[in-house]
């Protein structure tokens, strides 16, 4: 009788756990078993009771870098944060042959996840359209894979000494907020820890691949928290600034030299040209400064604009000096004309002015008149050579220094 009941029980169990029924109910039953509140507590770290730290492996996948703001000194990006750890409480090797279990959004709250945050984050948000963009997979050996999509605005302290030929290193810090190193340890994935998608930025490009490091933070109450960091090495594209800043300012400086070939008596033309170039350089400099933070050091673009302004202003001052010499010339010519009129006057003899003396005075005035004109023309001729040569020397020095010699890493 006992053997018959035993055989019947085996037959019933065989029917209940046939492959057909197992395939239909196994995942649900396994999840109900694993996440049962009587045996699993999502509020406790996996190895908390064993008094050892849970190792969490991280990978960062950068989808896009939307903007880099020099004034606010931050960068905005969209990333996938992928975390992997082993939770022994979630092993189901003895229950099924399924390679992994994929959890629904509503079940993820029942699984423990690290309290990861970004210390240098200014603003961030999750993506929830059309559902929260996150996934959680559980492998047979208890390995948990957790991925989430984030949009971040991170602080990036920029050094603008070489702007716009600058290179920036923007760090990304990842840390636990509540768990110390006694409970959670972060490690970068051994291969492809930081991956960058086909990212295109209007003003920057990646100078080299991101570098990764491990770090730790200790606070006043002697608690040490695990930390990871990666640096994005960015270099500014100078093409925009060549087309919008450097080439136009070079042309403006060259335009100011045109006044050296204009006749010294063409006062309206030379004054208008000089004032126009000074105002144009000043306006251009103001537009550039409005898009940059008010830092206390001198940037490369400040040096460039200042020297260009100095050149166009010097060209204007050069004509101011030429104009003084011209006015002296006209004043001497007026005196000579007056003496000529006096010499032709018959009443001069009655005054007693010596004719020889009159001739000597006229010769002296004429010599001075020639000296003033020669000096004015000579200064114009010298300026035609000195100004271009000085500007070429400045350009050679400027580009060599800021592109090759100067390094403010």
From TrEMBL:
<dbReference type="Pfam" id="PF02932">
    <property type="entry name" value="Neur_chan_memb"/>
</dbReference>
<feature type="transmembrane region" description="Helical">
    <location>
        <begin position="303"/>
        <end position="322"/>
    </location>
</feature>
<keyword id="KW-0406">Ion transport</keyword>
<dbReference type="InterPro" id="IPR006201">
    <property type="entry name" value="Neur_channel"/>
</dbReference>
<dbReference type="Pfam" id="PF02931">
    <property type="entry name" value="Neur_chan_LBD"/>
</dbReference>
<keyword id="KW-0812">Transmembrane</keyword>
<feature type="signal peptide">
    <location>
        <begin position="1"/>
        <end position="23"/>
    </location>
</feature>
<comment type="similarity">
    <text>Belongs to the ligand-gated ion channel (TC 1.A.9) family. Gamma-aminobutyric acid receptor (TC 1.A.9.5) subfamily.</text>
</comment>
<feature type="transmembrane region" description="Helical">
    <location>
        <begin position="382"/>
        <end position="404"/>
    </location>
</feature>
<dbReference type="GO" id="GO:0005254">
    <property type="term" value="F:chloride channel activity"/>
</dbReference>
<dbReference type="GO" id="GO:0005230">
    <property type="term" value="F:extracellular ligand-gated monoatomic ion channel activity"/>
</dbReference>
<dbReference type="InterPro" id="IPR018000">
    <property type="entry name" value="Neurotransmitter_ion_chnl_CS"/>
</dbReference>
<keyword id="KW-0813">Transport</keyword>
<dbReference type="InterPro" id="IPR036719">
    <property type="entry name" value="Neuro-gated_channel_TM_sf"/>
</dbReference>
<keyword id="KW-0868">Chloride</keyword>
<dbReference type="InterPro" id="IPR006028">
    <property type="entry name" value="GABAA/Glycine_rcpt"/>
</dbReference>
<keyword id="KW-0325">Glycoprotein</keyword>
<protein>
    <recommendedName>
        <fullName>Gamma-aminobutyric acid receptor subunit beta</fullName>
    </recommendedName>
</protein>
<dbReference type="InterPro" id="IPR006202">
    <property type="entry name" value="Neur_chan_lig-bd"/>
</dbReference>
<dbReference type="InterPro" id="IPR006029">
    <property type="entry name" value="Neurotrans-gated_channel_TM"/>
</dbReference>
<dbReference type="InterPro" id="IPR038050">
    <property type="entry name" value="Neuro_actylchol_rec"/>
</dbReference>
<feature type="domain" description="Neurotransmitter-gated ion-channel transmembrane">
    <location>
        <begin position="246"/>
        <end position="334"/>
    </location>
</feature>
<feature type="transmembrane region" description="Helical">
    <location>
        <begin position="267"/>
        <end position="283"/>
    </location>
</feature>
<keyword id="KW-0628">Postsynaptic cell membrane</keyword>
<keyword id="KW-0407">Ion channel</keyword>
<keyword id="KW-0869">Chloride channel</keyword>
<keyword id="KW-1133">Transmembrane helix</keyword>
<keyword id="KW-1015">Disulfide bond</keyword>
<feature type="transmembrane region" description="Helical">
    <location>
        <begin position="238"/>
        <end position="260"/>
    </location>
</feature>
<keyword id="KW-0770">Synapse</keyword>
<dbReference type="GO" id="GO:0004888">
    <property type="term" value="F:transmembrane signaling receptor activity"/>
</dbReference>
<dbReference type="GO" id="GO:0034707">
    <property type="term" value="C:chloride channel complex"/>
</dbReference>
<feature type="domain" description="Neurotransmitter-gated ion-channel ligand-binding">
    <location>
        <begin position="28"/>
        <end position="237"/>
    </location>
</feature>
<keyword id="KW-0675">Receptor</keyword>
<dbReference type="GO" id="GO:0045211">
    <property type="term" value="C:postsynaptic membrane"/>
</dbReference>
<keyword id="KW-1003">Cell membrane</keyword>
<keyword id="KW-0732">Signal</keyword>
<dbReference type="InterPro" id="IPR036734">
    <property type="entry name" value="Neur_chan_lig-bd_sf"/>
</dbReference>
<keyword id="KW-1071">Ligand-gated ion channel</keyword>
<keyword id="KW-0472">Membrane</keyword>
């Amino acid at each position: 009788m006992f053997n018959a009941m035993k055989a019947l029980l085996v037959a019933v169990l065989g029917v209940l756990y046939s492959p057909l029924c197992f395939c239909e109910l196994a995942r649900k039953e396994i999840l109900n078993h694993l996440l049962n509140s009587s045996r699993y507590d999502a509020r406790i770290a996996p190895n908390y009771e064993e008094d050892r730290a849970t190792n969490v492996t991280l990978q960062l996948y950068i989808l896009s870098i939307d903007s880099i703001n020099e004034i606010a000194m931050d960068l905005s990006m969209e990333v996938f944060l992928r975390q992997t750890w082993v939770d022994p409480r979630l092993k189901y090797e003895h229950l099924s042959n399924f390679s992994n279990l994929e959890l629904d959004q509503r079940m993820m709250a029942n699984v423990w996840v690290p309290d990861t945050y970004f210390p240098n984050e200014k603003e961030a948000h999750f993506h929830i359209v059309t559902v929260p963009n996150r996934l959680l997979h559980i492998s047979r050996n208890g390995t948990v894979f957790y991925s989430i999509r984030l949009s971040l605005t991170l602080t990036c302290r920029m050094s603008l000494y070489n702007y716009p030929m600058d290179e920036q290193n923007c760090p990304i810090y990842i840390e636990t907020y509540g768990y110390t190193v006694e409970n959670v340890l972060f490690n970068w994935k051994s291969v492809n820890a930081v991956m960058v998608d086909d990212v295109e930025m209007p003003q920057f490009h990646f100078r080299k691949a991101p570098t990764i490091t491990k770090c730790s933070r200790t606070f006043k109450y002697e608690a040490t928290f695990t930390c990871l960091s990666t640096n994005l090495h960015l270099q500014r594209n100078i093409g925009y600034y060549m087309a919008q800043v450097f080439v136009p300012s070079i042309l403006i400086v060259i335009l100011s030299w045109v006044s050296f070939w204009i006749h010294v008596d063409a006062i309206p033309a030379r004054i208008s040209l000089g004032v126009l170039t000074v105002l144009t350089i000043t306006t251009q400099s103001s537009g550039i400064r409005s898009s940059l933070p008010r830092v206390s050091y001198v940037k490369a673009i400040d040096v460039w604009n200042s020297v260009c302004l100095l050149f166009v202003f010097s060209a204007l001052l050069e004509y101011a000096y030429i104009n003084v010499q011209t006015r002296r010339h006209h004043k001497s010519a007026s005196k000579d004309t007056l003496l000529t009129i006096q010499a032709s006057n018959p009443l001069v003899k009655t005054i007693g002015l010596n004719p020889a003396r009159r001739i000597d005075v006229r010769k002296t005035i004429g010599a001075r008149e020639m000296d003033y004109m020669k000096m004015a023309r000579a200064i114009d001729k010298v300026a035609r050579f000195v100004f271009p040569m000085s500007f070429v020397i400045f350009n050679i020095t400027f580009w060599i220094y800021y592109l090759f010699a100067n390094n403010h890493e």
